[in-house]
Amino acid sequence: MGKKLASLMIVISMLMIVGELIQEANGQTVICGIPAVNFAPCLPSLMPPNPQPPSTVCCVTIKGGDEKCLCSFSNSPLLPRYGIDKALFLAIFGKCGLPSCPSFD
What we know:
Layout: H1 2-17, E1 22-25, E2 28-31, E3 34-35, H2 43-46, H3 56-63, H4 67-73, H5 78-81, H6 86-95
Antiparallel strand pairs: 1-2, 2-3
């Protein structure tokens, strides 16, 4: 569990750098409308080499966020820096029953 927590802390730190996507609400970091700590269940689905299918909790989290904001974040150069695969990040929408992100390339 220590490795997952460390990965979560890295991801949260990374996301905090991208200021336009982050807000503070009641002292809690919020990313695209989602409290940052709520992304933890999604980490196993976003990191290669053996990503897991997203859990129900992960999908509920993703569905609760601002989809346009999350799709925009998919182009962040920080994702690969912290081990999050862009293709896996984009695929999670479809795996959770949401429409795919439009291409921003």
